[in-house]
Write a structure and sequence with these properties.
The protein has 414 residues and is an alpha/beta fold. The protein folds into four domains: 116 residues, Rossmann fold; 121 residues, Transcription Regulator spoIIAA, CATH 3.30.750.210; 116 residues, Transcription Regulator spoIIAA (2-Layer Sandwich), CATH 3.30.750; 48 residues. The chain is built from 13 helices and 18 strands. The strands form five sheets. It has a five-stranded parallel beta sheet with strand order 2-1-3-4-5, with helices on both faces. A five-stranded mixed β-barrel has the order 14-15-16-18-17. Keywords: 4Fe-4S, Cytoplasm, Iron, Iron-sulfur, Metal-binding, S-adenosyl-L-methionine, Transferase.
Length: 414
C-alpha cells in the first residue's frame, strides 16, 4: 500500500507526522512523495483557527471527489473537535489525538479510535528519525492549561505533560551523533516544561548545552511570564540561537485582560526591550491577533505602539475567529470581517518594515550560518542567507554579511 501524509499546523504536528512516516515504513507501507500515487492518506489536522479547519475539510472533499477509492484517515486536533462532521465529510477513519501515535495501525486495521486526550502521554513519541540531516525536532512536552479566552487547544491537547529530562537528553545526543546541527525542542507550550515533574525548561536546556558536539539549539515560543533570569542567561551560551518567539496577541492592556493573558502591554515592552538589550543581536518574533471582540480603533493603535516600542522584529498576524467552547466565542461586540482584514494588512505592512530594519542591522556583521540545501543557509537569529558557491550543506560557516535582498535574504562572504 502506498501512503501519503498531509500535515497542517504547528511544529508538534510536524514531528508527529515524521513519527507516523517511520511507523508506516516499519509496517511495510510505501511512503510516496506525491499524493496522486497514494492508496491511502493520513491528514494530520489543526483546529487552532477556523481557516485551518476549512483548509483541511476542503482538501478532504477534493481527495474524495477526485479519487473516491483513496482511503482517508484524519487525526490531530480537528479529529477531536469535529469527529461527527468528519465522518459525514467522507473520512474513512477518525483517530483522535490520544491515539495519533498508532494511526498507521488503525489505518491498516480500518478502525476508528476515540478517546479522551487525558489518556495520552508525551512519551508516546520518542526518538524520531528526521528526513532533514540539518534540523531535527524533538518533542519535549504536550498540552496547555493556560486557557487564553480565544484558544481551544487546552480542550484538544489536554493538560501539560513533560518528557523526562533523561529521555530528551538521550534523544538529542543521538541526533547530534547522527550529524544534525540544529536541534529544535517542540511542544504545545514548551515554557510549561517540567511543571509536572519538578524540572523546568531552563534546567533541561542546561543539560542539553552540555552535550558534546558542534550543534545549536533553537527555541520556539516562550511566554513573557516564563522568561526568567536563568533562561535569559542561557541565551549567552553559543549553543542557544539568538532568536525567540514571545507571543504578544494584543498590544492593548484592556484586550490582553479579556484574552486572559496575565500581563500588560507595558510589561511586554519593558521585558522584551530589556531582554534584547542584554543579548546582543537577539531577534524576537511575536504573534498578534486582530479583531478580538471589543477591539476598538484606539485598542488597535495601542497595539501598534506596543509593537514598535518593544523591539519586536518578526510579526505573525492572525485574524480572530470564534472557536466554539472558548470564553471569547460568547463575548459581545464582534468585529466585522472587513475591519479585521484591514487591521491585519496594516500589521503585515508593519511587520515587513520591522523585519527589513532587523535585516539591515545584520549588514556589516559576522554571523555564524548553518548551510542548507539549495545554496541557502540560516543565521542563529533567524535570517535566511544566500551562501557563496562551494559551501557544503549541514556545516557552519562564519559569514561577513555585506548586504541583503529586498525580501530580507542576507548575503556575504566567508
Amino acid at each position: 500500500m502506498n501512503i501519503y501524509i498531509y500535515t497542517f499546523g504547528c511544529k508538534v504536528n510536524q514531528v508527529e507526522s515524521e513519527h507516523l512516516l517511520g511507523r508506516a515504513a516499519e509496517n511495510g507501507l510505501v511512503v510516496v512523495s506525491e499524493a496522486s500515487s497514494a492508496d491511502a492518506v493520513i491528514i494530520n489536522s489543526c483546529a487552532v483557527t477556523e481557516r485551518a479547519v476549512n483548509k483541511m475539510l476542503s482538501l478532504l472533499r477534493k481527495i474524495k471527489k477526485d479519487r473516491p477509492e483513496v482511503f482517508a484517515l484524519v487525526t490531530g486536533c480537528a479529529a477531536d473537535l469535529l469527529t461527527e462532521k468528519l465522518k459525514k465529510s467522507g473520512t474513512d477513519i477518525v483517530v483522535t489525538n490520544a491515539g495519533k501515535k498508532d494511526a498507521v495501525e488503525y489505518l491498516l486495521e480500518k478502525r476508528d479510535f476515540y478517546s479522551s486526550i487525558e489518556t495520552r502521554t508525551v512519551l508516546d513519541i520518542g526518538y524520531t528519525p528526521m528526513k532533514s540531516r540539518t534540523r531535527a525536532f524533538v518533542k519535549i512536552q504536550d498540552g496547555c492549561d493556560s486557557f487564553c479566552s480565544y484558544c481551544i487547544i487546552p480542550m484538544l491537547r489536554g493538560k501539560p505533560v513533560s518528557k523526562p529530562e533523561e529521555d530528551v537528553v538521550n534523544e538529542v545526543t543521538r541526533l547530534v551523533e547522527e550529524g544534525h546541527k540544529e536541534i529544535v525542542p517542540v511542544g504545545i507550550h514548551i515554557g510549561k516544561y517540567g511543571q509536572d515533574n519538578g524540572s523546568s525548561l531552563a534546567l533541561l536546556l542546561e543539560k542539553l548545552v552540555a552535550i558534546e558536539g558542534d550543534f545549536r539549539i533553537r527555541l520556539t515560543s516562550v511566554e513573557l511570564n516564563e522568561l526568567d533570569d536563568r533562561l535569559e542567561e542561557l541565551f549567552r551560551n553559543d549553543k542557544i540561537c539568538r532568536h525567540l518567539h514571545i507571543p504578544l496577541q494584543s498590544g492593548s492592556s484592556g484586550i490582553l485582560k479579556k484574552m486572559n493573558r496575565h500581563y500588560t502591554a507595558e510589561e511586554y515592552i519593558e521585558k522584551v526591550s530589556a531582554f534584547k538589550h542584554k543579548i546582543n543581536g537577539l531577534t524576537v518574533g511575536a504573534d498578534v491577533i486582530t479583531g478580538f471582540p471589543g477591539e476598538t480603533d484606539a485598542h488597535f493603535e495601542e497595539c501598534i505602539n506596543t509593537i514598535c516600542s518593544s523591539g519586536v522584529d518578526f510579526l505573525h498576524v492572525f485574524q480572530y475567529s470564534d472557536r466554539e467552547g472558548t470564553a471569547a466565542s460568547t463575548m459581545k461586540d464582534k468585529i466585522k470581517g472587513a475591519v479585521k482584514k484591514e487591521r491585519a494588512e496594516k500589521l503585515r505592512i508593519l511587520g515587513d518594515r520591522l523585519k527589513s530594519e532587523a535585516a539591515d542591522r545584520c549588514v556589516g556583521k559576522s554571523l555564524r550560518v548553518l548551510a542548507q540545501k539549495g545554496g541557502m543557509g540560516i543565521t542563529d537569529n533567524y535570517f535566511d542567507v544566500r551562501m557563496p558557491d562551494g559551501c557544503e550543506p549541514n556545516r557552519f560557516y562564519t559569514m561577513n554579511i555585506t548586504g541583503r535582498r529586498e525580501d530580507c535574504v542576507l548575503y556575504g562572504d566567508e
